[in-house]
Amino acid sequence: MDRRSFITKAGFAGVGAVAASTLSAPAIAQGNQTWRMVTTWPKNFPGLGVGAQRLADRITTMSGGRLTIQLYAAGELVPPLQSLDAVIDGSAEMSHGAAYYWQNKSTGLNFFTGVPYGMTSRELTAWVHHLGGQEIWDEIYDQFGVQGFLSGDTGTQAGGWFRNELTGVSDVQGLRFRTPGLGGQVWEKLGASVTNMAAGEIFQALQSGTLDAAEFVGPYNDLALGFHQIAKNYYFPSFIEPGLATELVVDKAKFQELPEDLQAVVKTACAAEYDNVAADFAANDPRALQTLVNDHGVQIRQFPDEILEAGANAAKEIMQGLLESDDALTKKTAESFVSALNIVRQKTEGTDSLFIQAREKYFQI
């Protein structure tokens, strides 16, 4: 996909003037309501932006139009990284993004997106839905009058785009790298200078030299964003984002005012879209990667063991600090996460990974 064409279609235009009527209270007529969903994703962005739109449409359809969701892509109503604040201050009823974007509000929110060397996406779902994660997530967001639900899943992500090949930790020193969350803290411990920025800002930062390297999601998104035009070394897999989850955040008071069946519609639509986004990435990441390699000369590489080991050690240090945090809720979240990880990894490592190894070795058709 041509990057300029995508950006034009995606409406990466800056935060333009919004008519006052757009900011008016949600429409309510004959029991029907229209809610605004702001997102951190560009319009029609593969996987994530499309998934957010599909979620909005799914809620609208499942509710029979009683709860109509009007989606605003990144920059259409508020800047992408102010989406959560828009729900908190009442400018929107919903936001669609990633919880670790808001770590400045609570460090514990990192755990509901992706943790270095942490849970895969299926393991994260098990924790949130069956091992106490949702209840802790609710505690964190209660402080801000909102509630979060898992809404999408990219699977294990790519490790990032680098201009030069990495031979060891020494090549990371001083590297200006775009990557968010706890993973950013890992790369900082390895010597990188880390920053976070929204999807639509990364290409220009790479092109101008403001960034030396960047990671966003994986081939499906990265092809559309055009990173291959700047850097050709594409590293796999991400050890800092083993199973990224997106979230739908709702104004909790308004959500609780909904009839029970509409509350169930929102929850069920989120669960369905979580799996649908995962399937979308599973189907399209490999095809996008083939395009990157065959049509654009991208070099697929794996991180050197020295970087993987140093990253693991840094991740352990960060996790230990969170387990000993002075913030009671962050400590509680870390403890719950680690306890659940030690349960769910038994199946992943003792069953799933053994099957994958056997299939790779013996079953080629």
List the helices and strands and how they pair.
Elements: H1 3-10, E1 28-29, E2 32-39, H2 48-62, E3 67-72, H3 83-88, E4 94-97, H4 121-130, H5 133-142, E5 146-155, E6 160-162, E7 176-178, H6 181-189, E8 193-195, H7 199-208, E9 213-214, H8 219-225, E10 233-236, E11 244-251, H9 252-257, H10 260-296, E12 299-302, H11 305-323, H12 328-362
Parallel strand pairs: 2-3, 2-4, 7-8, 7-9, 10-12
Antiparallel strand pairs: 1-2, 4-11, 5-11, 6-9, 6-10
Characteristic key phrases:
365 residues, alpha/beta, six-stranded mixed sheet, 12 strands, 47% helix, 16% strand, disordered N terminus
Question: Can you describe what's shown?
Answer:
It is a single chain. Helices cover 47% and strands 16% of the residues. The longest helix is centred in the C-terminal third of the chain and has 37 residues, at 260-296. Strands 1, 2, 3, 4, 5 and 11 form a six-stranded mixed sheet that branches. It has a six-stranded mixed sheet with strand order 8-7-9-6-10-12, with helices on one face. It has twelve helices and twelve strands. 47% of the residues are buried. It is α/β, with parallel strands linked by helices and 365 residues long. Helix 2 packs antiparallel against helix 10 (260-296), helix 4 packs across helix 12 (328-362) and helix 5 crosses helix 12. It is globular and about 60 Å long.
